[in-house]
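Lab notebook, design round three. We kept the backbone fixed and only want residue identities now. Task for the bench partner: fill in a sequence for the structure below.
Input C-alpha cells:
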C-alpha cells in the first residue's frame, strides 16, 4: 500500500475514533451527570 493511501486510511480511522469518543462521552455524561469529567480524569490518571 502506498504511503499516501496509508495516510488517508489512518486519517479516516482517527475521524471514526473521534466520533466514537464523542458518542461515548455523551453516554458517560448521561450516566454520571456533572461528575463525568471528574470521573474521566480519575480513570485517565490511574
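Proposed sequence:
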Amino acid at each position: 500500500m502506498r504511503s499516501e493511501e496509508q495516510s488517508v486510511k489512518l486519517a479516516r480511522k482517527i475521524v471514526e475514533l473521534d466520533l466514537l469518543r464523542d458518542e461515548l462521552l455523551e453516554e458517560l455524561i448521561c450516566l454520571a451527570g456533572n461528575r463525568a469529567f471528574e470521573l474521566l480524569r480519575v480513570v485517565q490518571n490511574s
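Keep this in mind before ordering anything: The longest helix spans residues 3-32.
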